[in-house]
Amino acid sequence: MRYENRQTLIFVGWLVGIIVVLALAASWVLAAAGSSRGSDYRAMQSVINRKTPIVKVDQTYHLSRSCQSVSASGFDKRGHRYYFVFLPNSKRAYLYAGSKGKSAQTILKKAKRDHGQHSDTTINLGWYRGQPVWEVAYRKQNGNCSYILYSFKTGKQLSFIDNL
Question: Which domain holds residue 158?
Fold first, then answer.
């Protein structure tokens, strides 16, 4: 084999090896990031099962604003709605009766009334600056995103970020 061909094969071998190592490292990082959220949900579900009256979870949420939080809404044996907010980093948990706060539907109607109808509207329950909040996110016609934070307890708008 000629010297030039041998050098080219060595170069290609190193290049393929580096690409494989980078791909493995990237997949490891992505798997670790995904398992963190999954473990947060499992920890939340464990606390719900052991410490709350909730027997049926109907919705889960994730919010990362001033701190990371995972939340759920569900029902007890009698059909009463509860909302549960879990802060995985501090291991704190908060349980709210449905009658003590605003529902997701109420907040979505308020956001529609105050800010108009938009596509790709999502809502999340979480924790922000020491209180439970609803975050409404939507995409505007120009393609930009907007976020609105509402107090869970009062329904009052706390923050509005437009055209990101």
Answer: 1-164
> Count of domains in the chain?
1
Residue 120: give its domain's CATH number.
Answer: 3.10.450.40
Could you report the per-residue pLDDT of 93-139, keeping only the tens digit for each? 999 999 999 999 999 999 999 888 777 889 999 999 999 999 999 98
Query: Edge-to-edge strand order for the sheet containing 131-139?
Result: 119-128, 131-139, 145-151, 157-161
Gap between the Cα atoms of 127 and 124, Å rounded? 10
CB atoms within 10 A of CB 98: 15
* Higher pLDDT pick, 66 / 18: 18
CA distance linking residue 101 with residue 83, whole number of Å:
9
The amino acid present at 106, given as its one-letter code, is T
Query: How does pLDDT run across 7-27, given as a tens digit for each residue?
Result: 888 888 888 888 888 888 777
CA–CA dist 88, 10 (Å, integer): 48
**Four-residue CA torsion sign, 65, 104, 34, 41:** positive
Inter-residue contact 93 to 87 (CB < 8 Å): yes
* Residue of 46, 37, 48 whose CA lies nearest to 96: 48
